[in-house]
Amino acid sequence: MKLTHPYCRPAGPWLRGNLHTHSTNSDGTLTPAELVELYASHGYDFLAISDHDTFTPPLAHPTLVGVPAVEVSRGGSHLLSVGTPQVYDTSLTRAEILGQIAADGGLAILAHPNWLAHYQHWEQAQLEVLGPYHGIEIFNSVIDFLEGEAHALDRWDQLLSKGRRVWGYAHDDFHRPGNGPRGWNRVAAAERTPESIVAALQAGSCYASSGVFIERIEVDEESFRIVAPEASELRFVTRYGKVLQFVEGGSGSYTFQGNEGYVRAEAYGRGKQAAWTQPVWVTA
Ligand SMILES: [Zn+2]
Ligand SMILES: [Zn+2]
Hints:
Number of domains: 1
Shape: globular
Oligomer: single chain
Number of helices: 5
CATH class: Alpha Beta
Bound molecules: zinc ion
CATH topology: TIM Barrel
């Protein structure tokens, strides 16, 4: 049995941040400075202002690391380009833009797959053939206020089950007060810099959350252990969303059998709040 996962490197300090916000430079109601103050006041460690097809330079702040980002929006389904100040030519195809983001060393995340009344902002067939990208939004807070579904765990499990090694991320897509702060990624970054945070996000050294904190994620040769003190239930999930094991409380472990393909963990808290780890790949 061979296990491959993003939690093996020595974890740096956990840093928490949101990569998807809009300012008055596109269709948001808060200025960049107001966004930075809002997220800093909630204890966030990093923030990306990802205006639609517009680069908003990160602002210097004593506690909040600014990560450069743009939401590629016109001309097709939306995606986040994180880590570079580049604005992409939206007359190009999404595949061409993803190729450019990869060439620029950026982090590419496909946004809100289940947005709109047909729940198909990104069609599953597109997600399956398109590349390269690092992952998809498995939670987008603003979709709770619009038609569609904020979560996209169903989409992610289908991709993972077909062997696409892509990560899950959670974001606010903040446009106006009330949209968050709610969705975030907690990252094991080596340093408190945009470069280090983006590298850890690209490597999947992070987990996604809509409000639940996971304190420890441990994988050894036999088991997958989670400690999330405030969670009331843990779930270990495999191909096509099948739950392998339910655990009452916030601490528990799963013993690998060797034939799962992948196993990921979920920690449930109050209401619909949850946290989602990245998958551990289990191969013979
Ligand atoms: Zn969008
Ligand atoms: Zn957006």
